[in-house]
Specification:
Blueprint (H helix, E strand, L loop, with lengths): L1 H10 L6 E3 L5 H17 L4 E5 L12 H12 L6 E5 L5 E7 L10
Parallel strand pairs: 1-2
Antiparallel strand pairs: 2-4, 3-4
Helix pairs in contact: 2-3
Length: 108
């Protein structure tokens, strides 16, 4: 996986790595978010694009993962360091997380 990330980073230097959580349950998704953030941070990445989905397949059409991931990010020191991406339909299914440089300076 790291060779693919290096290849994509070289081909698209401004693009952030992406984590797609479609089909995952909340505990599995939160574990994946934690692992992806650790990997991106250790590789010197500037950000992570997390695809949570819009909840179209969820009961009531409410995205469970979107809220759970946002709550996890807030609880783990990422409050104010992520933003939601809203589509043309007015719904959001993606979170962009910005990572800080070791000295505390924002690199996104």
């Amino acid at each position: 996986m790291s060779w693919l990330r290096r290849l994509l980073t070289a081909a698209f230097p401004g693009a952030a790595p992406e984590l797609d959580l479609h089909g995952m349950r909340v505990p599995e998704a939160l574990d994946a978010v934690e692992a992806a953030l650790a990997e991106v941070t250790s590789g010197g990445g500037k950000g992570l694009r997390i695809v949570c989905g819009k909840g179209k397949g969820s009961p009531g059409g409410v995205g469970v993962l979107r809220s759970a991931v946002a709550g996890w990010l807030d609880a783990h020191g990422y409050e104010g360091r992520y933003r939601r991406e809203v589509d043309s339909d007015g719904r959001d299914g993606v979170l962009w997380v910005e990572l800080r440089a070791p000295c505390g300076e924002v690199r996104f």
